[in-house]
Write a structure and sequence with these properties.
single chain; alpha/beta; Rossmann fold; globular
Length: 314
Amino acid sequence: MSKPLLIAGNANISLAQEIADHLGLQLCEAKIRRFGDGEVSVYIERTVRGHDAYIIQPTCTPVNDHLMELLLMTDALKRASVNQITAVVPYFGYARQDRKHIGRVPISAKLVANLIQTSGADRMLTLDLHAGQIQGFFDIPVDNLRADPIFAQHFKKLKNNPDVVVTAPDIGGVKRARQLAERLNLSLAIVEKRRQWEDEKTEVMSVIGNVEGKKVLIVDDIIASGGTIINATNALLEGGAKEVWCACTHAVFTDTALEKLKASPLKKVVVTNSIPSLPDEAPLVERISIGPLFAKTIQRVGQGESVSELFPHD
Ligand code: R5P
């Protein structure tokens, strides 16, 4: 079997390099540039015939450019006779547009899934999809990896501590929070939120569960504007929490999110490197790496081994 080929778009080159280092591979030389009018241009600089290719490209901001890079890299590889293409998309942009919640709106996540497939991807690797059902938008295999084992490892000192409560910042996040709570043997609380979708504003309703005098760890998949986390933090502190931390997979951090998080009462925000870090985010924001997880998964996919074995106790 020929060596796997790892190719990085511009979205998260440091993560791609880290994955390559873990696998003892070099990133495949490719030129991904912009023409003067903004069109994306892709040139794979070596032969790829017969190889299994892994394109590492989260579709984070600028989302449309990074998505287009992914599609064009896939097309270029396909036309250059690779064996199999795996789109490694640790953060899947458009995932929050996954249903018609009112009339006359697209199901954008489905369209993006169609585009990735049509461009020639044979398989997808991703992480903490906003809604697990998005896997069904693809007719190719999708491995939706999870960050909770990595967070559990990071927060292992909190295990069995009765003074710590894991919290979901909204009803939709209960399953995710429960998974981490179970791994750490901690109790669970929920902040009930109602979202006004038009302008991304959120409204915190109430805290379900006992957080009085506790250290609280909010778990979420995405921080975008920061509104959800900050509103949840305020509700928890009003509910008597002693301090609030947050563990979140995808640090989307739109506009002034980082400034707002810094000005909030949050003690610490622990995120993964699915999206590249921002300058000046430390010490509030701490990054933990998903590089080893993706390297192991790529290895297993290449060797035809189980991926679910990476997530024991499910
Ligand atoms: C909502 O369902 C998601 O899980 C996140 O809580 C949400 O997307 C975060 O967005 P923001 O930071 O803008 O409130």
